[in-house]
Design goal:
This protein is an alpha/beta fold. It is built from 14 helices and 18 strands. The longest helix has 15 residues, at 3-17.
Length: 389
Amino acid sequence: MNPGDHETFMRRAIDAAKRGWGDTHPNPLVGALIVENGLVAAEGHHARAGEAHAEINALQALGRKPAPGATLYVTLEPCCTHGRTPPCTEAIAKAGITRVVVGATDPNPAHAGKGFDLLRATGVEVVPGVLADDCADLNLIFNHWITTGRPLFAAKSGVTLDGKVATRTGDSRWITGEQARADGHRWRRLFPAIAVGAGTVRADNPRLTARLDGKEWCPWRFVFDGLLRTVADKAMPNVYTDEFRERTIVVTTVHGGMGYVRKLQALGVKTWVLSGQSPKVGFADFRARCATEGITGVFFEGGAQLLSEALQARELDYLFTYHAPVLLADEKGKGLLRGLRTETLADAIRLTRVRHEVLGDDSLMRGFVQYPGKMFVDEATFSRKLYGE
């Protein structure tokens, strides 16, 4: 079988993996195919944590012993340890699979290539690294979490070609087109949590749910409001009163006032009161609390002040920017990010592992945030374990 065939089948395995989009946390997205005589005989995906892995689901979907010479395609290295489910390497060898074609190496230190060694020891041929970048990209959140123990903090915004998120009067609906906005909802569906600042809640009264194909999902919804200004308003925001209000967490400080905290709790809204000298919520403290609560990723959607503060604190890990073919050419238009003094290009923040996509007239650029003079642990780990660098 030639490399082109491997890539064709791996792309189908990637599509299978995406059926678990947003449902597998803290586990990764994984898809698997069983190919017999050049044809797909069965496929499976990992649906949610605690349930069967993709390889097992593919074998069960086959419903019989694989034909001689059958090949298993899987987007992530098969697990080789016993957790909530038995190791997939044992099931693969027992089934009589003779070749396993793998996308990304599992960055989990408990696995990280050990699954390959175990399979080879049983006589199974292993072909690693097929569409490794695309397979690793399936699991931005998992990869960051398993290698650093920290939730992935990602930010998203729609901007004009000259980097503005709103006109001087604050008009921003809509900079990007329908396809770009729908893609934003797709990423909302992936992340276990969405975060916005108090200014965005007061100005836009957003719902902060993922709405796709006529269905609606609600992740954890964080509102950063160090002084609880949103609670002082006469009209309560949607996120405090709708049917998903118990999925809302207001992140505040001791400066916000316990009376407002009790008011939120009476509505069924959760609060995280973080310590600190400033009425601004500390991102490092917020990240630590997310890790304690098992929230593996947060999708920051604004506003510009919140995203800028995260960048200034060097607590932003990943950035999604949707670029629209629009020019304001107004120095008083509202920019996406601010607050740094960057005197040379060597001091600039850059994106790495950059990916591009065209969405109608708009384009998406996304990648890991690389701060000058600093390489994140996850970036070094990704290079070494996922990409063979």
